[in-house]
């Protein structure tokens, strides 16, 4: 991690998280945009999702994260056993997620699969890039939901098969369709078309660690 990233101040939104599901062993919450999932390294980046949740649910823990700019569903286990179980499900790709995004331009195909390896961009940390030599295999399924010719913007559903950092942003950029409001990867004219990153984790499905039954949850995109 670069010193620039370590020292970056990321102001936490006042918007609260929403509880989508709760039982004795796990929570599913809807994280607002502009909120870290866990505390940042900078002293002013201590306000985050998990600390807010722990005020009400002291035993909640983090098993996966969403970026600061991304909103949507996050699973928070409340026992060590459930934390281990959900972690193993992520490793085995048993957790299925999809996101909603609004991107610049018209996506060329109505649906497809992006298979482009992603690596850290060492010259431009904390960014990532497509890199055939050093990149890790990265796969995203996408589906065009609608296109607005007036604004020249596409609404897409994205399913990350792999879970690389910034994968969805990098893959859509590689298609020529950067996300609106993306201050890291989009040009200033695209970034300025939205006051937030237009990326939301809308749906998640996994196996409940105790009942072993599939459970699924959704939270509509706020855009």
From TrEMBL:
It comes from the Bacteria. InterPro entries: PsdUridine_synth_cat_dom_sf (IPR020103), PsdUridine_synth_RluC/D (IPR006225), PsdUridine_synth_RsuA/RluA (IPR006145), RluA_PseudoU_synthase (IPR050188). It holds the Pfam family PseudoU_synth_2. It catalyses: a uridine in RNA = a pseudouridine in RNA. The keyword Glycoprotein does not apply. Coiled coil: none annotated. The keyword Zinc-finger does not apply. Belongs to the pseudouridine synthase RluA family. Responsible for synthesis of pseudouridine from uracil. This is Pseudouridine synthase. It comes from Rheinheimera aquimaris. The gene is rluA_2.
